[in-house]
Amino acid sequence: MSIKLEHVTYTYSPGTVYEMHALEDVNLEIRDGQFVGIIGHTGSGKSTLIQHFNGLMKPTGGLVLYNGENIWGENYPLKALRSHVGLVFQYPEHQLFEESVLEDVCFGPKNQGLSPDEAKERAKEALAQVGLGEEFYSSSPFELSGGQKRRAAIAGVLAMNPDVLVLDEPTAGLDPRGRDEILDQIAELHSVRGITIILVSHSMEDIAKYVERIIVMNKGKVAFDDAPKEVFSHYRELEGMGLAAPQITYIMHALKEKGIPVDETATTVEEARVSILKALGK
Ligand SMILES: Nc1ncnc2c1ncn2[C@@H]1O[C@H](COP(=O)(O)OP(=O)(O)OP(=O)(O)O)[C@@H](O)[C@H]1O
C-alpha cells in the first residue's frame, strides 16, 4: 500500500475574493504499516490534506497516487479507494443515526454490498476491535458516553475493512481517560492488525508517544517530515509555527544546558525518566 502526493496544491474558491491556497506543492508518501502523525497550527491545511488521501477532495494541481495509480485518472474506482482508506472526521459521533449501535456500524459494510449477515459479522468484529462488547449491540448510540460514541463511530469505518485509517483529532473534546482509551485502541489496531494509521492531532504528547513519523504542516506546506526526535529537535522553529514540542523536550534541553548529561532528544516521559536516572548514576 502506498499513498503518494506529488506537487499537490489545493485552492478554495479560486479566482474569487475568497481565494485561499490551502495546500502548496505538497510531496509525501505514506507506506504500508506506518503510524504517521500530522501536526500543524490551526488553518495550516491538515484537514484539507487528509481529504486528498481518499479522493474526497480533488487537487487543484499535482497528482495523488494510490499504489502508483493516479486516483483522478479515467475510470479509477474511487468508491473502492474510499473503502481502502477509511476517514474518521472530527466529532464522528455526530454521524451516528441508527437506532442501535450494531445497526449503525453495519451501515458502511451494507453500503459496500455485503449481505445483512455478513455486514453484522463485520460490525461485531469492528466493535470488538474498539473495545465495545455484545452489551452495546442494542444500545442506542445516544445513550453512550462521549468516548464510547467516538469508538462506535470509529468502528463504523473499521467495519469497511480499510487498509489505512485516517483520524482527524480523534481525542477532541474527550476527558483524559477517554483520550487514553481511544489512543490505546488505535495503537492496538496498528500493532495487532497492522493497519496503517494517519493521526491528526494537536497534542504533542500524544503524537510523541504513539507515532513513528511526523508530518508538520505550516501554511499549506510540509515544513518537516521525519521521526519525532528529529522533528522535536527543531523546537524553536516549531514555536515560530505556533507549535510546541512535548513539554519534556524543554525540560531535557534545560538540564543539558545546565551540564547534566541527559539525552535531550527524549520525547516521552518514560524515555526522559530512563535518561535522567542514568545521568544520576542510578
Ligand atoms: N470550505 C472552505 N472554504 C474556504 N476556505 C477554507 C475552507 N475550508 C478551509 N479553508 C481554509 O483553508 C485553510 C486550511 O484549512 P484546514 O481546515 O485544512 O486547516 P486545519 O489545519 O485542518 O485547521 P484546524 O486545525 O483548525 O482543523 C485555512 O486557512 C481555512 O480557513
Automatic annotation (TrEMBL):
Family statement: Belongs to the ABC transporter superfamily. Energy-coupling factor EcfA family.
Alphabetized UniProt keyword annotations: ATP-binding, Cell membrane, Membrane, Nucleotide-binding, Translocase, Transport
Keyword Transport included in the entry's annotation: yes
Topology class, membrane: Peripheral membrane protein
Entry EC number(s): 7.-.-.-
Organism: Lactonifactor longoviformis DSM 17459
GO-annotated cellular components: ATP-binding cassette (ABC) transporter complex
Job description of the protein: ATP-binding (A) component of a common energy-coupling factor (ECF) ABC-transporter complex.
PROSITE patterns: ABC_TRANSPORTER_1, ABC_TRANSPORTER_2
Quaternary assembly: Forms a stable energy-coupling factor (ECF) transporter complex composed of 2 membrane-embedded substrate-binding proteins (S component), 2 ATP-binding proteins (A component) and 2 transmembrane proteins (T component).
Subcellular localization: Cell membrane
Domain ABC transporter: 3-244
Name of the protein described by the UniProt record: Energy-coupling factor transporter ATP-binding protein EcfA2
GO MF annotations in UniProt: ATP binding; ATP hydrolysis activity; ATPase-coupled transmembrane transporter activity
Record NCBIfam families: ECF_ATPase_2, PRK13637.1
One matching Pfam family: ABC_tran
Superkingdom of the organism of origin: Bacteria
UniProt cross-references to PANTHER family, sorted A to Z: ENERGY-COUPLING FACTOR TRANSPORTER ATP-BINDING PROTEIN ECFA2, HEAVY METAL TRANSPORTER
Alphabetical list of InterPro entries matching this protein: AAA+_ATPase (IPR003593), ABC_transporter-like_ATP-bd (IPR003439), ABC_transporter-like_CS (IPR017871), ABC_transpr_CbiO/EcfA_su (IPR015856), ECF_ABC_transporter_ATP-bd (IPR050095), EcfA2 (IPR030946), P-loop_NTPase (IPR027417)
